[in-house]
């Protein structure tokens, strides 16, 4: 089989490597979006849990006259957990994805192997987007942890107040 390299075109290995690199970069970007979706699902469950806690413990703690300050601090922590949860749940424009594939058609691609060049550029774009997304995803994870911690604190405060009443 004659080599295309003699005619000035690549033999396909560069194209294959670029295609694989793009596939890996795209998979990393997809994993980030799945991680955010899963984090938001867990945050929804956290909101459900905090609603149950406030329904049972919060109402009893707020109607008890003994150590009322604990009940109000617990209520403040409840509001804080709601704010943290909503921050995670609300849509954001900080998490990017590949949105405009048509822009690739306007690029001046390498004449030698435009497919390899396109895959290489897509891989670089995915890597850049992934790096940009990473910091915000970490922030969402930390805020989720704070929301979960706030729920634990409210349970402890209201449970302590009710135990001492």
Description:
With 165 residues, this protein is an all-alpha fold. It has one domain. 75% of the residues lie in helices and 0% in strands. The protein contains 3 helices and no strands. Helix 1 runs antiparallel to helix 2, helix 1 packs parallel to helix 3 and helix 2 packs antiparallel against helix 3. It is rod-shaped and about 80 Å long. The N and C termini lie far apart (89 Å).
Main traits of this protein?
165 residues; disordered N terminus
User: What is Rg?
Assistant: 26 Å
Which descriptor suits the 3D outline?
A: rod-shaped
**Main sheet characteristics:** none
| Structure summary, number of beta strands | 0
The portion of residues forming beta strands comes to under 5%
Secondary-structure class: mainly alpha
Helix run count: 3
The N- to C-terminal Cα distance equals 89 Å
H/E series: HHH
Low-confidence stretches: 1-8
Overall pLDDT confidence: 86
Give a brief description:
The protein has 165 residues and is an all-alpha fold.
List the topology elements.
Blueprint (H helix, E strand, L loop, with lengths): L12 H51 L4 H22 L24 H51 L1
Helix pairs in contact: 1-2, 1-3, 2-3
